[in-house]
Structures are given as C-alpha cells and as structure tokens.
Amino acid sequence: MADSAQERTEQATPRKLRRARREGQVARSMELNSVIVISFGFVTIYLMGPMIYSSLATMMTQTFSGAPHVVISQTTVPGLIMDNLMTFGVIAGPILLSLAIFAYAVNVSQTGFLFSVKALAIKTDKFNLAKGFKRLISKRSLAELIRDIIKIILISIVSYHTLSGWLPKMMMLGDAGIGQYAASMGKLALTLAIKISVVLLVVALFDFAFQRYDYASNLKMTKQEVREELKDTEGNPILKARVRQIQRDLARQRMMAEIPKADVVITNPVHLAVALKYNPAEMPSPLVVAKGQRLIAEKIKEIAREHGIPVVENKPLAQSLFKLVDVGNFIPGTLYRAVAEVLAYIYRLKETGGVSRG
Question: What is the pTM of this model?
Fold first, then answer.
C-alpha cells in the first residue's frame, strides 16, 4: 500500500510546470527543428540558386581574370582575401540569416519565448558515471535508438528507389554536355532532398509527440506530492475548512440576531422558515433577514416565538422565498402581491390584538 502511494500517477500541477519551465525543462524535439530548417534551406537554395550561381560565377571570373595583374605581397593578399570574403558574405548572408531566423521561429513555436539561466548552469550529475549509464539504458534512449534505426531504414529505402529510377536517365547522359549533366544532377539532388525531407518530417512529428509524452511522464507526481503542493499554494485544506466553518457560524449568528427585528416568519411549515422585515419609509420592498431549513428553520421559529414575531404558514410562498431570495436581499417583484397579503393579514391581527404566535 505504501509503495502504490508513492507511484507517480498524477499529472504535474501548474506550479510544477512553471517551475520546470523556469529551469529550462520544456518539451522540445530537436529532430523537428533540424528537419524543418534543412527543408527550408533546400527551398531557399532552390529559389535563390540562379542568383547564387550568377554571383559566384561573377566573383570567380573577376578573381581569376585579375589574377595575372595582382601583385603578391603582405599588404595585398589580406585585402584580396577580405574582399572575397565580403563578396561571399553578401551572397550567402541572406540565406544564413533567414535560416537562423527560421530556426529560432521553429524553436519558439515549440516552447514559446523562454530564457533560463538555470539551463546554462553546470550540473554535477552530468559527470556521474552511474547516472550516465542509467540514462544510456533508459526508456528515452531506447526510443531514440528505435527512432534513428527507423530513420536510417526509411532514408535508405527512399534513396534506393529514387536513384534506381534515375539510373537509366543518367546512363543516357554519357554524351551530354557539362551543363546538361549538371542540370540533371541538380534535379536529382533536389528530388532526393525533397523525398528525404518528407521522411524526416514524418519521423520528427512522431518524435515531437514522444517528447511531449516523455516530458509529461517525467513530471508526474505522487498523490502525496500533489497534496503538499496544494498545501503550499492554497494552504492546509483542514485549516481552510475550519475557517469556512467559523465564517458560516458567524454569518448564522448575525442572521439569528436579526430575527427579533423581523415583522413575520413564513414557514413551510416544518422544513423551511423565512423571516421578513419591512419598513415602508426606508425600504423599497420587504427584506429577507433570515432563512433556513430543518434545524435552522426550527431555530428561526423558536426565536420568533420568544420575541413575539408572527409565524405564518404558507408553503408556496415559503418555498419561493427560500429559493429566489438570499439573506440581506429584497424580495423580487413577482412576490410582492403574495407577501403584501401576508403583511396585511399580520397588520390586521395586530390591530385587533390577535397576533398568531405559530
């Protein structure tokens, strides 16, 4: 029984999830990041390929055509290298920048905006050989091994079918020019890259689902931990229940103290009792000063009798007042007529000296 009580069967509380997030623990699939960035890179290179090719060709033409006129010295060589690096940066910079922005956007889409200094801290358990070996044979490591094996098998199958389908076409290019051969090879590479990207994306989506499941499993709590968490965040439930009980008792005492000021108590006659007070000069309509059922109803009637408050039996009216009006509120317009008849009856009895005591 004690062992089962310590099993982590409960989902992590919002407080624990926030604490884990502050420490940099989030559900994230690096596979999904990689495959989306690589796919975006392929698309970017495909769309910007002609421009990149033209720019590189121009740079190389200028470099090689001007090579015979270059004076090699300690002052000219660094300048030439810097010029070529700047030119290459202008060509490749937009691609690298767009890839960096896209990689950050993919990461944010998985985890949201997150910066945690604790995630950068050195953890001593990383150097613990026993814990390191335990991580190697963990459920997570096994899942990653299976994922990588499946990925390699699928990529091999897709590559084999793609290359075998293109092999006859490549054999026919034996007499073709370099440009036509290069164009065919480029088309083959793009086709293969797209197919592999699709395979990697499917694997990455499964990996993302597993990472979320593994993250939730690692953060699960025991029932005792959940109880301790609730105590820390909301206070001891026993104390809270005691406070609520005291508040109810005080409210009931205040309500009972108002009964002697009532004009009439309307009953069910046994189960319900509602005390009404009405002062035409100060109130827009009769006010419910007390109400209760069963034992509280009996107490209301007892106090009313002790202070000479009329007790009138009217089942429909008592039920309506009990359901519709809270203590301290005025009665609604739908009950004006019924209550007015009761009050008129009480006033007539007072005038004749025949007030009922229930």
Answer: 0.48
